[in-house]
From TrEMBL:
Gene3D superfamilies, sorted: 2.10.70.100, 3.30.450.40, Histidine kinase-like ATPase, C-terminal domain, PAS domain, PPM-type phosphatase domain
Name of the protein: protein-serine/threonine phosphatase
Function: Primarily acts as an independent SigF regulator that is sensitive to the osmosensory signal, mediating the cross talk of PknD with the SigF regulon. Possesses both phosphatase and kinase activities. The kinase domain functions as a classic anti-sigma factor-like kinase to phosphorylate the anti-anti-sigma factor domain at the canonical regulatory site, and the phosphatase domain antagonizes this activity.
Enzyme class: hydrolase
Source species of the chain: Kitasatospora albolonga
One Pfam family per UniProt: SpoIIE
Compositional bias (Low complexity): 703-718
Residues of the PAC domain: 100-152
Amino acid sequence: MTDHEQRQDAEAAPLRRTDGKTNGEIGPAERLAMNRTGSFDWDLDTRTLDIDDAGLAVFGVDPATFDASPGALVERLEPAERARLDVTIDEAITGGTNSFNVHFRVPLDDGTPQWTHVQARVLRSKDGKAHRIVGIVRDATAEVTHSAFVLDLEKRRQRQTSIVERTTSAMSRAVTVDDVTAALTGPGGLARLGADGLALGLVENSALNIVALSGESLEALDGLGSGDLERNLPLADAIRSGRPRFITSLAALARRYPVLEPHLGKLRFRAAAYLPLVAQARSLGGLALFYRERTVFNADERILCLGLAAIVAQSLQRAMLFDEEREFATQLQSAMLPPRIQDIEGGEIAVRYHAAWSGRQVGGDWYDVISLPKNRYGLVVGDVQGHDTHAAAIMGQLRIALRAYAAEGHPPATVLARASRFLSELDTDRFATCTYAQVDLATGAARVVRAGHLGPLIRHTDGRVGSPQVRGGLPLGISTEFKDEEYPETRLDLVPGETFVLYTDGLVEEPGADLDTGVEALRNEVSAGPAGAEALADHLSDRLWERWGSGDDVALLVLRRSPDVGSSHAPRLHQYIHQADPEGLSDARAIVRQALADWDMGEFADDAELVTGELLVNVLLHTEGGAVLTLEVLPEPVRRIRLSVQDRSSAWPRRRTPGETSTSGRGLLLLDAVATRWGIEPRGEGKAVWCEIGPAPPPATAAPPSAAEAQAPPAGRR
């Protein structure tokens, strides 16, 4: 292509104007400015500047008045521009370079700035000293302005790309409708959208319901938000028509929607985009974006707004579907669990159920409380393998079967064996785990069995939490397949005021941590929580579900035996000492001493502590279980202490005559020496050894011996 042809193509090609208009041609004045180029020769020795008329025109200097002095040109520059030009020239001369170029602004006579470009070569003598600078000077305004416009355009495009990417990322993590609104209105929500305010409305039964507001928004004003979809308001209009509305002035907004005119004084934004939210041809609602600084929406900005609306619409559609599935799953689970837990005599029960956020992936966790004869209750918490509707269906059948076996009066081991057989006969590949306990609140006796499940926790009256060792069998279903339906029972005792906690693994499973960590956290929360069953269940729900998240179902059952603290005149305490607790004996002694000090009977603390140790050691060494310690004040006819230790052994202690070197056999001798009266009473499956410490009652009012005392070895001081 010849130079002439190239010039013709350049003249014919449409270029972007420097005033921001698109698809326009450069006018003659602009083309003249682009072609204004002159040359100069600067003699550094004589300090004279030879510059042609075209070069002087670039500087806006009349050739008739120019005196060949370089200062006559640079004096027109602003001080900052002059300093920048001087530095560039000095660095080129002293730095040894042979050329330089620089852009600077020259103010014209009409006050407008002109970008000027100087490209020069430094001529040096043989010794390297600069003596001349020759070069060209030209008007570069159009070039620089166009370059700045391109850079600004690229920045805007990068900003738009960032808005789309950040919004897409935030919406991809939204699962529910609440998650979508939180992503839009939460920290950084408006910044992600590049707006100063927003309103999100959903269509519900031919009405518009505003579900999210943030920043400055029209819908935040009274009467302009939720309501009839047929009202002549901008967001409702965009939803009804399915077309976006771009508002670039409040006056235009009032002309189009006259009902808004009285409210214009309350609005601080200058532009708004009302965008319909449509997904798969279904109108979901509308999104309004408000801007304080914007006054126009160019083509790119309109496309950006429509893209944001599409992202939000798709996220809303997905979230609405999830919420519908979630509601279905929750209703299904609720229908299979007891609608309410009955009030019980001698205690209080609280249950909680927390469903995992997994759409139709229904869990198989369950709980149940079964009324049994003689004021006994069957307590069960279990978990069917899997998270789907099949697991929920099996859970419902298994719960009903286990309830039926328990109601027939079978012992706990038989109940689980039959439940395992029932699950196996369902011909399913699922298994289930559970813990089942029969509790007699009158005596505090609890018979517990486990089928591959977590054992219970017991919170004692002093706040300590124990994990009793409950022997277990295989999970239900698996035990029948392996022909091993043995579920050994473990006997536990709940003293008045103690709390029994059953739970499923969802309560203690923490992502990335082992199960022991979660169980220890549960123990700490049970210990720190309030005493009442309902209050403790709420405490555990709030603390642990929030900590672990919602990745698994959780069933929780809390039983508290009613406390028996006596009265202020005759106080009473109960304490269970587990056989496997190495610190239980010393803790019991400390509890007895502290109680007597609190009851103003500290003078009997030494004797009571000694007797407590002797009676408990006898139980822990010679029986198969733990002991229940009861300490109370007998106020009449004289104030004294009654101490009782109950165990599950039917063998009564025998008085012996130990030799001088014997290490045992002196317990009853000590009891006889310290106590005013003592004896043995039968208690259900076991017995209780009791004693009284303090002043003896007057002989005339002394109570006749009980049947147990009549059978006991001779007791009392001699």
